[in-house]
Amino acid sequence: MTNNTVRGFQTAKFKSHPAVTHNKFFSWHRHTSLVSRMTAASPLVRLGSSVLAPRVGVSLVGSPARSEQVLKSVFEKAQPMFLNVLLDSHTAHHEEKLGELATIHQYNHVFVSTHLQPCKPSHVHGQVKEIQKRLGNLRIDHLSLPSPFLLPGVLDGKGQFDAVAYFAIWHELEALFRMGAIRSIGVIDLTVHKLQKFLPLCHIPPALLQAEMHPFMPQVDLLDHCKTNSITVAALAPLAAFPTAGGRIKTADNTTLGRVANDLKITVPQAMVRWALSRGTICLPRTTSPAHLSDLLAMASISAEPTVRHGRMLAGLNRHQRLHRGDDAAAAMGLAWHQLWDELPLDANGIPLRGSMLCSLMDLPDNSARGFGYPGALHSPMFLVRKENTVTAFLNRCPHLNTALDVNGSFLDKSGQHVMCATHGALFQTSDGLCLSGPCKDDSLVRIPVHVRGGHVIMGDPK
Predict the structure, then answer these.
(1) Among 49, 168, 51, which Cα is nearest to 119's?
(2) Cα separation of 43 and 380, whole Å?
(3) Rg of the chain's alpha carbons, rounded to an integer?
(4) Contacts of 442-446 spanning 24+ positions with Cβ under 8 A
(5) Inter-residue contact 368 to 384 (CB < 8 Å)
(6) Distance between CA atoms of residues 142 and 17, nearest Å
(7) Which pTM value belongs to this model?
(8) pLDDT, tens digit, 9 for 90 and up, residues 271-300
(9) Separation between Cα atoms, residue 208 and residue 253, nearest integer Å
(10) What is the pLDDT of residue 320?
(11) Rounded to whole angstroms, how far apart are CA atoms 221 and 227?
């Protein structure tokens, strides 16, 4: 073994593996046979400018004894794999077990991703040295900051994100990346709003963002924002199961998922994996079953691909059903859980609750309409219309067939003077929702009470 160090950090591993070069950043693509083996088992995706990673892997969290069987399977079968250590009380044990198995089997063609424990900026370098000791002959391929609501001083008492405090910790990761101690760096659980505040401060942008994503919460806006900024996304809980109070969604009984799986001639979990991969995300489910792990690897290389029709069917499942809400962290800060995620509190139908601030008048130009409700939903449950300084709100349902009115978020006709149903062209007054023409003439849209206060649109009647 060659053990080069830079300021005490290990920067090279097994000398016998050509994938590890003398360059301070070694890349998977430098070893042709390794890439061909990985592509056959698990397609690769680029993180940043110089690192390739498997697109399918497993998240290690919870009982070390249960995860150990999966790890043994990976190393015994010499399977190239994205191994993602999630942050919990067993993180150190998982890291130690990874290092131990790599030494026993003399195999280090796994992509190791782990997280910092919540800490101050001055403690980051010390933590990384400890992680490297636990991993032994494995390098830190990817290191993420933990969720912002777990970091001291990053969220204030009102849930506001302090991007400067967050960047102070990130800056230490940038330094470690430049030294070659870490191959890539990333973040977890950042929302679009937080990314918009954080990215302008970065000297080195995150290569990877880990976030909960599955058909019941696809986070379309977040995924699009990451693609625009060249950030790869890793889907956590892609099978709609998370080891927290949020629990699991009963996907096996879901009719839509069943139809898609039947069309593709695969199982429901396999269809969910293929859907995640078709969106360009890395798929990191949690599993404690070696057999399940083999099924996941197989899904990366089969030709079953969800069609556009399947995509539309699955888009209809979006209820922004978050399993990992961070209830304990929110309670410790005296916040509601939705404040951690910069979200509006919604009722069971996706309608924002009374008192919710929807937007400012500046964000809703005159003669325009905008939908609200489930983020990224195919059709928003409600929408606002502004005429001069008057704002009205309606349910997004046509009284004719009870279908959504809009197409791609467009609610108005070309003139901008009427709400128009995209199905049969019915026109409605923007002031009260009365239908002026079409198959439901003289019927009305269901109006939702909103009011304007301090330049902002608020749900409910004024007090």
Answers:
(1) 168
(2) 35
(3) 24
(4) 443/399, 443/400, 444/399, 445/394, 445/395, 445/397, 445/398, 445/399, 445/405, 445/419, 446/394, 446/395, 446/397
(5) no
(6) 19
(7) 0.81
(8) 999 999 999 999 998 877 777 777 776 766
(9) 33
(10) 83
(11) 10
Burial class (CB in 10 A: 0-12, 13-18, 19+), 276: buried
Q: Structure tokens of 95?
A: 């890291």
